[in-house]
Amino acid sequence: MTRILLVDDEPSILAALVPLLRSRGYEVTTATTGYGALDAVDRESVQLVILDLGLPDLDGVEVCRRLREGRSLPILVLSARGAESHKVAALDAGADDYVTKPFSTEELLARIRAAIRRAEAGTAPAGDIVRGELRIEVDRRRVTRGGAEFRLTPKEFDLLVFLAQRPGRVLTHKSILRAIWGPNAVDQPEHLRVLVAALRKKIEPDPTNPTYIRTEPWVGYRFADDGPGIG
User: Is residue 80 within 8 Å of 54, Cβ to Cβ?
Assistant: First the structure.
């Protein structure tokens, strides 16, 4: 049974989510402070963290950063802070996804299921990556869709693999730039926009309505792990 750590200091959120999650078969541990969350992760076998950013002791972004150190468990931020800057800060600190309050319980449950699926599948699959008709042969650096091969530049291929190995996870512009071009490129988002546009023209059935590489406005990109044609 999956154990979820719910970190929030709002009694109404705890009162609503704890019974909901338990009714869906999850074990639930709660914490109302950042230090309490860090202690709970160290003491208990937690498979996923739902984290509020507005905690009374540590800022949630700092909690996220500390949780990420040496751990691979999924972190889903659930916060009233809806500004893009807050989303980017949390995602750059290591969060896997971000849901803004007020929220739909069904959307939250879907995000939880997706995060657990990604964790169980792993984030760095070896060998071929297959998403619907798209096949990425990592070792051979070969990409096909429906049997037709695409000629990608080295950077286009590196970007595609980086995204595809993390399906469903929101990846910020900064994290992608750092991975593809190195730490000195984090302030050059125009490079990424150009590269994504070029890659979409090659692999997407309809580049104006992307199936695989989805934009998270002002934040980054998400490689689809669901929807039509994605397997």
Answer: yes
Cα–Cα distance between 40 and 172 in angstroms, integer? 28
- The domains found in the chain, sorted by start residue, are 3-121 (3.40.50.2300), 128-223 (1.10.10.10)
pTM of the model: 0.66
- Whole-angstrom distance between the N-terminal and C-terminal Cα of the chain? 25
Is the Cα dihedral 59, 60, 63, 65 positive or negative? negative
For residues 146 and 133, give the distance between their C-alpha atoms in angstroms, rounded to a whole number. 5
Q: Is 213 helix (H, G, I), strand (E, B) or coil?
A: strand
| CA dist 40 → 59, 137, 163 (Å) | 17, 40, 31
The tens digit of pLDDT for each residue in 170-224 reads 899 988 988 888 777 666 778 899 999 999 999 999 999 999 999 998 899 999 8
3-state secondary structure of 53: coil
Q: Which residues of 7-32 are buried (b: 16+ CB within 10 A; e: fewer)?
A: bbbeeebbeebbeebeeeebebbbbb
Q: How far is 231 from 228, CA to CA, in rounded Å?
A: 8
- Helices within the chain (DSSP H only): 11-23, 34-43, 60-68, 84-92, 105-121, 154-164, 173-181, 189-203
Instruction: Convert the pLDDT of each residue in 112-123 to its tens digit.
Output: 998 888 777 654
